[in-house]
Design brief:
The complex is a heterodimer of chains A (360) and B (360).
Chain A lengths: L9 E8 L6 E8 L6 E10 L2 H7 L16 E8 L11 E4 L2 E3 L5 H4 L10 E2 L18 E5 L3 E3 L6 H4 L5 H11 L9 E5 L3 H12 L3 E6 L5 H6 L5 E4 L3 H6 L4 E6 L8 H6 E9 L7 E3 L1 H6 L3 E4 L5 H14 L5 E4 L4 H9 L6 E5 L8
Parallel strand pairs in A: 10-11, 10-13, 11-12, 13-14, 14-16, 17-18
Antiparallel strand pairs in A: 1-2, 3-4, 3-8, 3-18, 4-5, 5-9, 6-7
Helix pairs in contact in A: 4-5, 4-10
Chain B lengths: L9 E8 L6 E8 L6 E10 L2 H7 L16 E8 L11 E4 L2 E3 L5 H4 L10 E2 L18 E5 L4 E2 L6 H4 L5 H11 L9 E5 L3 H12 L3 E6 L5 H6 L5 E4 L3 H6 L4 E6 L8 H4 L2 E9 L7 E3 L1 H6 L3 E4 L5 H14 L5 E4 L4 H9 L6 E5 L8
Parallel strand pairs in B: 10-11, 10-13, 11-12, 13-14, 14-16, 17-18
Antiparallel strand pairs in B: 1-2, 3-4, 3-8, 3-18, 4-5, 5-9, 6-7
Classes of the chains: A alpha/beta (360), B alpha/beta (360).
Chain lengths: 360, 360
Amino acid sequence: MAQTTPNHTQTVSGWAAHDSSGEITPFTFKRRENGENDVTIEILYCGMCHTDIHHVKDDWGITMYPVVPGHEITGIITKVGSNVRKFKIGDRVGVGCLAATCLKCEYCEESQENYCDQVQFTYNGIFWDGSITYGGYSKMLVADHRYVVRIPDNMAMDRAAPLLCAGITVYTPLKDNNLVHTKGKRIGIIGLGGLGHVAVKFGKAFGHHVTVISTSPSKEQEAKNNLGADDFILSTNPKQMQAKKRTLDFILDTVSAKHSLGNYLELLKVNGTLVIVGAPDKPIDLPAFPMIFGKRTVKGSLIGSIEETQEMMDLCWKHNILSDIEIIATDQINEGLDRLVKNDVKYRFVIDIAGQSSHL
Amino acid sequence: MAKTTPNHTQAVSGWAALDSSGKITPYIFNRRENGVNDVTIKILYCGICHTDLHYAKNDWGITMYPVVPGHEITGIVVEVGSNVTNFKTGDKVGVGCMSASCLECESCKNSEENYCDKVQFTYNGVFWDGSITYGGYSKMLVADYRFVVAVPENLPMDRAAPLLCAGATVFCPMKDNNLIGSPRKKIGVVGLGGLGHLAIKFGKAFGHHVTVISTSLSKEKEAKTKLGADDFVVSSNAQQMQSRQKTLDFILDTVSANHSLGPYLELLKVKGTFVIVGAPDKPMGLSAFPLIFGKRTVKGSMIGSIKETQEMIDICGKYNIMCDIEIVTPDRINEAYERIEKNDIKYRFVIDIASESSKL
């Protein structure tokens, strides 16, 4: 497959990993000309997702080097293709994980294109023209308008960036399990990181009792004081876990490390549901007894469609939900990745791509 | 806890395991007097469930010896307590896995008493009077009327017995996942044994395309010609499994041996559902990627409530669904156990308790 095609004439500065050491260095590459369905975006900010680490280090064995990661992108439109009606130059927009889908299958037709079996991602994917996709660790992006969402006016572009992946990833399970427009459920969030902290904010905004479940005792205070969580369970403390058995309606599992679901399932009431959105690469242990004796459900969920992403973004604006971030400069990306591996961030690094450090 | 109580005065012949060798030998014990809420049942037949072996051998570490197994019981009512209005002497009845529940919790009130956290089983349980419960490997049973169902006239008592556990266990997931009354789904059944063969019969009766997924190629002919399955996939054949990816709406996993779920999940369409009813004692490996990328669901389910059990057995009466069995006399229970461990049974052993060998 070609890494560039004849219409890839725009030179772009970015940052890439060249091998499985995962070290990120400056990288200049080419993007396609702005086509009739495209918008060109001057990138302001790009969030750093744990998936970026998996790709740069080739944890899943699927990386095509050099890889330019980044799928939590916010920026300003600088060019608009002739078929594009809903965006104009100067619009504040975001791009998440999707670069292309088949547009024809039952999932694409029902606004569930994230489940299209020909889905191509914003980086490490293959676009319709055969070129490899390069992500948001770059100054500029050319995106098909169908995969772009609007960022509401006055919403901070740096704190909005992680919503494009982390935000939508935790929003759709809440929506699919009737937690957006009904109040008063008891929900648990496993893992307090980029995804987990946004899930706590959504949970509280939607009127639920939120319990954070974590292996780190140090996160309890922040969870309660800063994020508004109602309860905190230290999952390594058997007494606490025992005391909370059969108390939760729903659990969102954001943890990407390998773990066993047994103890978490016991926290669910009968008929309760646990949704997995973190993606450990080794199989997770699923004991049958808690599933069977409690008639419990375990589901998977993958990001969201563009329609759901726009819906989520508008709700974030309404409820004043933004990510809690730490801004880093482009020459600090490697340091950011190292700290992210150690879980040392509250709660998302965002790369200041345009180097402006001013809120837009 | 007392093994008998003052009102346990009725001597009963049965068959019990006395230690974790699991060997079944004749055993005489006492049952309670028929109370105001009880019916006394002369047992005709009792199915042998794989769970009986797990208890006899103390596989789960919870057996109280001596244990009298058996929870697929059919028989005739011989005595009726004064509060009992829905049964009379001479009625053909069945008793399954439950002997008692709390009657007051949300699960009990919603006719989901099988999920009551104080549920007590027909054997190896502790009844309301503090006595240990003894199951259907015995000549007579005293049961609370709330845990007894009527067996339709047209069902032979021997072939109806396994419906009380195996039947309810496969029926409820089908009901819960909208497979009754909405035909032409594509469903998979993993494992062709006591549960699996009934699942095929239900699946065909409800108008679905049924695929059997098994490790044993030898089961293919019977599955198709005798049970009516539409398709058969050998799960260890990678090519067959690959060619059926994303084809099934629903899979019922009846396998009690340890296994990993990844390859089966791939058989499901996007948003498909996988229900676990077999109970391996080690955790199953759950691969996150097929769950997440396919928005799939894994659920557990355990037997059924009495209401659902009655509904199921009435449907069996209507569609003439009964188990394929091999009858054994009580002195051959150990031989049956050995053959069950080798999966050498089409598809349920039923003990001829009354040893009269005449159909009732």
